[in-house]
# Entry
Amino acid sequence: MISKISMKKKSKLAEMIKNNYLKSLHSLKQKKFSKILLKWRGQNNFDSLYPWRNSKNRYYVLLSEILLKKTTRKQVASEWSNITSRCNDFNDLQNIDLRKLKKVLKPLGLEHTRSKHLKDLSKKILADFNGKVPGTKKELLSLPGVGPYTANAVLCFAFGHDVSMLDVNILRVIKRVFSLDEKNSREAIDMHLWEFAEKLPPAGKGKEFNYAILDFASEVCTAKNPKCSECPVNKICNFVN
# Structure
């Protein structure tokens, strides 16, 4: 009896040591991955192509995230000047005629949904937040059309917080590199993946890291025909190896 108990304790101890060792390896790989991506961004900076990235205007950050949903960055960039010339702040959004707003947004698609979200969002921000983009996740999630990804994107790009972001493109990258599987059918709300992603942005470099992984997903780790042979992460990527 004592022998069986002792064996069970030894087995649990061995399993605990193994799990801690694997976590340690994962942590080292996460740090290396982040370091490689930041170096890659230093050599491949695309910020000049996307005007909202070069602005400190928090309205522009929130607006861009709403417009970027199910739309490419190149599409939004091509229409950015036209949109912001008519809707340059929350007051403009509130005052513009709904039909005109739909017409302005039509080149991006989803103009009916987007225009409603922007109208409702501007109304709430003007009424509840004195016309300013709120700075907490709880407040951001209270806005129409804003989910966890958009809230974290605003916290990161507008307020400089070191928070993680998860969309289909970022998920593709980390699932390939680290062989992660979603435990929830809706990946965007899978806490397992969110918890993993939260460990990736280095302290003080959340904005740089998130831009890096977004650009990396778009330029290298693409959905179809990823450029694995020229990928800077290929030596530590489980998808390649």
